[in-house]
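Chapter summary example.
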Amino acid sequence: MIKFFHILLFIGVFGLSHNVFAQSEFCKGFEEGYKIVKGDMVLVPLCPLEPLTPLGSNPYREGIKEGMKAAAN
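The structure predicted for these 73 residues follows.
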């Protein structure tokens, strides 16, 4: 039973760490959009929560728009 618990714990931690450290397309776009306005030598703030993607767009494009909006403020 304990060995089974350790295996489940390992799988859960590995899956969680993969999701935490994997950068989404939205966040990549956010970083790119922020740097378009502020320049390459800037500290980019944390990526906001990803909103629903409108039809005809993609998460990366929406991230660029949000990054540019954040940098302009």
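To summarize the output: The mean pLDDT is 85.
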